[in-house]
Design a protein that fits this description.
Layout: H1 2-11, E1 35-37, H2 47-51, E2 57-62, E3 65-70, H3 80-84, E4 90-92
Antiparallel strand pairs: 1-4, 2-3
Length: 108
């Protein structure tokens, strides 16, 4: 009987949290989230491909030259690629919303 009274009392109370899509919560300042790359300064050296533990960054043959691509579906957000990049074209931004219905949006 005590449990039933507790359930009824809690049902009448306003929720203590807000539903996510209606009120998104900001991530903490030092969160490592989405990886971004500045293609203009990237030299495609491949240092990121050597240290990536999940193989989220890899080489792709593009006509006559190789280039580095990133697949964020495999990324574990460890940040090792950012640390080894010699020209600092990689950056982890504070954007943690990666849900999408189009997988091409997760390729950078």
């Amino acid at each position: 009987m005590k449990l039933l009274s507790e359930v009824l009392r809690r049902m009448m109370r306003k929720p203590s949290t807000e539903r996510y899509p209606k009120a998104p919560s900001p991530a903490p300042a030092k969160t490592r989230s989405r990886l971004t790359r500045n293609r203009e300064i990237c030299i495609n050296c491949g240092a990121c491909t050597l240290v990536c533990p999940s193989k989220a960054c890899y080489f792709v043959q593009d006509k006559e030259k190789r280039r580095v691509d990133f697949n964020l579906t495999y990324c574990t957000f460890c940040g090792q690629c950012v640390e080894v990049c010699p020209v600092k074209c990689l950056k982890m931004v504070n954007d943690y919303e990666l849900a999408t219905s189009n997988k091409d949006e997760l390729m950078i």
